[in-house]
Design goal:
The protein is α/β, with parallel strands linked by helices and 232 residues long. 42% of the residues lie in helices and 19% in strands. The chain contains 10 helices and 8 strands.
Length: 232
Amino acid sequence: MISPLFITGTDTDAGKTIVTALINRGFQELGTKVITQKWVQCGNTKHTDIDFHDDLALKKPDPYLMPLRLPYLFEDPISPHLANTATPIEPKTLLESTKQLNQEHDLVLIEGAGGLRVPLSKTINTTDLLEEQQISCLLVVANKVGCINHSLLTIEALRHRQIPLLGVVITNPFPETNHKAAKDNPKTISELGQTPILGNIPYDHDLQNGNISEKLLPIAIDLARRIKNELD
């Protein structure tokens, strides 16, 4: 059993769901009993991020595990602290659900909601739980102008709170990523942030639609291997 891995991003739409799904598939290909989780989801209630993870999976987990995999689901696509007025988010519920999943699986991949400091309530944010439990993080960065600043600020925040950071995964949300900035961003983030780039996911139309293409499967497996080496 490996300790849980929290997958955070520089912002909303950084590509956390895609990266989580790819890592999930990669670990399954390696023979690891892995499962995904999302503590809080706001919006997309008919096809959740957990559903997307499962779309790319070799084997879908039993439905009875869904309340543990997605403890809080809110209809409005807004920050959790605004969405949870009728059903307050209890940190104990989040941590206990992760603990239960971790007891039955080799690895739990927790996809975050938005960025690192997203508030779960007016007094608690995601960072507080990660620091308290010392849960390792993977940072997902969308390769675009401005991502260096967002990445370095997030890395600084993680280190300030002494939260373990495994490294960075770059996503390319746009078909054309050959411009100068896109080529330089990963290198600069790695050098200035003093953290490894564990993966660079190319734009893929099939993946955007919930399917994994043949060219991405080796990337998913390699990413899982790199993460496993960092976690071991």
